[in-house]
Amino acid sequence: MAKSTTLYVCQSCGASFSKWAGKCEACGSWNSLVEETAAAVPKGLSGKRGKGVDFVGLDAPIPEAIRRATGIAEFDRVTGGGLVRGSALLVGGDPGIGKSTLLLQVVAALGNVKPALSCAYISGEEAVEQVQLRARRLGLSNAGAQLAAATSLRDIIASLDRSDPPDVVVIDSIQTMYLDSLDSAPGTVAQVRSCAAELIRIAKSRGFVLLLVGHVTKEGQIAGPRVLEHMVDTVLYFEGERGHQFRILRSVKNRFGPANEIGVFEMTDGGLHEVPNPSALFLAERRGNVSGATVFAGMEGTRPVLMEVQALVSPSPMSTPRRAVVGWDSNRLAMVLAVLETRCDLALAGNEVYLNIAGGLKINEPAADCAVAMALVSALSNRPVPEDVIVFGEIGLSGEIRMVAQAEQRLREAGKLGFRRALVPQSPQLRDKGGTGKAARPTAAIEGLQAVEIGHLQDLVDWLYNESRSLSLESPAISSAAAGAGRRS
């Protein structure tokens, strides 16, 4: 009989140790080691021979991928056009953000497409009556989905491992499932890894779509072993702030479509509603002629999104001024502040700085550097940025403005929403390798939109100073920066 050993497994990263410790040496988390019993594993394969695997060439004919659209355009955009047969998707998000509501609406939409798909919704956290009440509140009582409340993986596999399984299966959530062959409690690393592996195996063999709901830690990462995200085909994060009605469905991994794509929803009393034009919605409450606010043209996956960047700069009575950031990288803000101080002679060290991305959206791309710098300069000098101006560009440590990807799509989206001017990075005049003398293609012109190219951060400061000279009082900080512009080559 195989001898069992006791291991202490970290619930944050999955690392195992022979002795308990207060701190995990692998990831540094405290009080995360839990005792688990694991059966001894043989060191090598036995004498039994395997059946072998079949190999095919790269040019062999492949069957057409069966992808079914759900009818929810924002969800289909994030998944790459719909759900692929035999795929496994993992949806994570904060408690109460709307994961169960989203998947219940997806299941109901799949039951209304033609031909309709058979769907099974298995809840490990709620009773069947609770799911029915939510469906009734959302007006989805007529959907043809089958509901069940179960946590035993053995019972669930017995219901799904048949010749005619459902087309779509939702497991809410993977942390509540347990395998009775393991001694650990539900939600531990061993249980989550083993249950997910069994569900994915049966989904691949029977050809149904598997949707897994995953809990997240306080850092916002999906709870359980990191290998869980490697096992599935698609990882979706459902983001949003409790104080905002907007919800962002973001794809961080997708084997059947583009990654980093987003879908925007609005949470209402009747459930989640799609937002086909998020730029207009994020800018709906924008007020003009306010210092410290500018519009950034960003890219989320393949979609251009316009959002407002707000900054507030105020004198600080403390020796160490506060820096507060919502929706952006705090390290990136520290870099932009240092470049403004060093390259543009702006006095920001003794001021408190607050930065916010309006609407609850999180920006991860460096193209927002120029928009943040413009908002900071506007807040410091009390000079409003004109309402019809958008800004984007990456800032280098020497103060240069670097090119960003997909500039034409950003400008095109801004032109659709009525913006007339754009501060964009200067096109580099480089010759081709053949020596024909052709310059690099400049930023494409958009009808009705004037592109103002800037090559240095000082040009951004000078442009705002000259633009608002007749509307604002003279600012010592801006005046000194403008005076120093002649020192640049």
TrEMBL record:
Q: Where is the RecA family profile domain?
A: 64-216
**Residue ranges of the region described as Lon-protease-like:** 352-489
Name the UniProt key words of this record, in alphabetical order.
Answer: ATP-binding, DNA damage, DNA repair, DNA-binding, Hydrolase, Metal-binding, Nucleotide-binding, Stress response, Zinc, Zinc-finger
CDD domains xref list: RadA_SMS_N
Q: Which gene encodes it?
A: radA
Q: Which family does it belong to?
A: Belongs to the RecA family. RadA subfamily.
In chain numbering, motif RadA KNRFG motif lies across: 253-257
What is this protein's record name? Answer: DNA repair protein RadA
Show the domain comment: The middle region has homology to RecA with ATPase motifs including the RadA KNRFG motif, while the C-terminus is homologous to Lon protease.
